[in-house]
Amino acid sequence: MRDDELRPRRHFLKQAGLVTAGLGGLVALNDCRRGRSPAEAKGPAIIKSQRQYQWTMVTTWPRNFPGLGTGANRLAERIQSMSGGQLQISVKAAGERVPALQVFDAVRSGTAELGHGAAYYWKGKLPAAQFFSAVPFGLNAQEMAAWMYHGGALKLWTELYADFGVVPLPCGNTGVQMGGWFKKEIHSAADFQGLIMRMPGLGGEVIRQVGAAAPNIPGGEIFQALDSGAIDATEWVGPYNDLAFGLYKAAPYYYYPGWHEPGTVLELLINKSAWLALPAHLQAIIQGAAQADYNEMLAEFNARNGQALDTLVHARKVQLRRFPSDLLQKLAQISREVLGDMANQDTATRKVYDSFLGFQKTALGWNQIGESAYDQARLLDPAVEALLQSRS
Amino acid sequence: MRDDELRPRRHFLKQAGLVTAGLGGLVALNDCRRGRSPAEAKGPAIIKSQRQYQWTMVTTWPRNFPGLGTGANRLAERIQSMSGGQLQISVKAAGERVPALQVFDAVRSGTAELGHGAAYYWKGKLPAAQFFSAVPFGLNAQEMAAWMYHGGALKLWTELYADFGVVPLPCGNTGVQMGGWFKKEIHSAADFQGLIMRMPGLGGEVIRQVGAAAPNIPGGEIFQALDSGAIDATEWVGPYNDLAFGLYKAAPYYYYPGWHEPGTVLELLINKSAWLALPAHLQAIIQGAAQADYNEMLAEFNARNGQALDTLVHARKVQLRRFPSDLLQKLAQISREVLGDMANQDTATRKVYDSFLGFQKTALGWNQIGESAYDQARLLDPAVEALLQSRS
């Protein structure tokens, strides 16, 4: 194996506190002759010729970036572990094989069999792809998974990418993001007039409508731009990743909610020829590993965001602020108009938008009396109020 | 294979619209000599002796029960597909091999290698297990996953079951449940006095404190008990499963939120000896399949609950009601006392409760400005208000 290839690691077995000697790889025929208890092998050994695969995964993230880069590493390890090493994956971070924004084309051409990124990065060639990552005032992380796996979105996404010879799979979610870091407080839409705020994708389209400039600056350059005053404000992800970039050192006000990215889906890209040539069990492993990592990444962000928020507020004395309701209302209305305009541009986007709207209607109705009603109800206990105060 | 064994199905590949001929099973050595493109096999074929496993999974659910029983079937299929048929699983529904409430003991004794159920069913022998399924006013579905995978809960759960020779893994979540079906409206805690309401677990403990009787009746018998008047009220799961039982025919008022089960975790039980004897890649497959199914089941419940809610409200004219805030506050306080009492009973429960409390503190802080703040913000758009009205 090459030096930079990830060796299979029993990450998840260690997580559960269980490690076994394991038999992966070549197994002596003698094994099948040893007596075994009923709880163990019940069938005969089968001799198989098993083709080995060595693939490359290019990503849009800095190497080992918390949550995102580490998520790509972990997904590659999962696939290697589950396949007993039959499918080995070498992970190349942004810039190591191709630049971040070349990941889609690299997978399309077969330069790499796999890509790990977010669909809104390809909006230039596929505007409709933005629905499969994040939509302002759209579906949250759980709802995106529901729309994907039981609402038809994955089928639409697969069709959208098919002409490009690329297969998509959801493989993570950041959970709800934060509304950004500002040097001055935001009281109304007027405060966006002339504001230079780093915000990519549809969120950027929306704030342009209220007079902001919305440059898209690569993650690694955001702090410098904010600190130097080249930009007045920025969003990035949430407490976990924002703390990692030290953005609090360059702007004091930390706004919520993250209206522009309520639950951003991460995508695994697969070169279609490579996918079709795989045996069925390896396809099942890739699909299952990606779906497991949707759960794992979201769990990690939820846990780490909570901890990072505590650090930001209590140790770094960051000032949390909520966007005013009338501003949020205005941004929501503009978002709806921006999405509607997009849908009018081509039939592919129209189809996806209609599916999204239909799903949103049902999802909102359920969310109101389900998750939202519960989240509010549990705050009624005065002891919980005290619990939240005691975090100071 | 026996007739009742599930044959591997490419469920997930079909879901993504992709099916391939596949090479699973025995492969002729000739394959490795055929010329392949760079996108395909890059390495030599390896000859392996692969032991076959034929396991049994017993479940606590009726055969093919929506979401739950079908979830067990799907998990078994995933494992079979990912292992290329090396690990085959025969699923036995409640009563087919052992009764529902014997599932834990069946796995413990090795009668079955796998079990599919919920940890609160074993509260008699493991009171602390209740924390790993559902806690009144506790963590929601996303937070449970975060506590499990990045908050130490899975480690504690594994330790708890270790003495019984059983290994647990989270393998699903129902999402938030509903507060139940009532023949009369609930205005205050006084309306629980003398009420006979089917409610198992910790929820039942809580309503007993406000004077209700809380029998635990098996799912399949609930409708009859409610319709006949043997009970006055019941909870079951959420709109999807409640509609399946036709409970609306026996009681007109459908209350929310589901304070007693905010995000119930489903568990996969594994006989420890069987687990330790598995090769590493099959352990990784089981762990990954279970984690993928946590995501899948939750996605399914979210999608189907939304649709079923629409049916119940608009087609069946069910009357939705929200529990009064002061009642919820009282139930929350009682829940806290019940949990505290449990924790005082033994050190294992104390340890789990302390972990839960620590995690809850951070989770609530993040949820308030994260998911909750976002869910409320998106309702500010008047068009969304109109959207929700238009569902009538």
Description:
Two copies of one chain form a homodimer. The first copy, chain A, is α/β, with parallel strands linked by helices and 392 residues long. In chain A, α2 (69-82) links the parallel β2 (53-59) and β3. Chain A has 13 helices and eleven strands. Residues 1-41 of chain A have low confidence and may be disordered. Helices cover 42% and strands 14% of the residues of chain A. At the A-B interface, α1, β1, β2, α2 and α4 of A face α1, β1, β2, α2 and α4 of B. β1 (45-51) of chain A pairs antiparallel with β1 (45-51) of chain B, so a sheet runs across the interface.
Low-pLDDT segments of chain A: 1-41
Major β-sheet profile of chain A: 5 strands, mixed
CA distance, first residue to last residue of chain A: 50 Å
Q: How many H/I helices of chain A?
A: 13
* Sheet with the most strands: spatial strand order of chain A: 3-2-4-10-5
Q: Give the strand tally of chain A.
A: 11
Task: Give the DSSP E fraction of chain A (strand runs of 2 or more residues).
Answer: 5-15%
Oligomerization category of the chains in this entry = homodimer
Using the alpha-carbon principal axes, give the shape of chain A. globular
Structural class of chain A: alpha/beta
**Topology of chain A as a string of helices (H) and strands (E):** HEEHEHEHHEEEHHEHEEHHEHHH
Mean pLDDT of chain A: 88
Cα gyration radius of chain A (Å): 23 Å
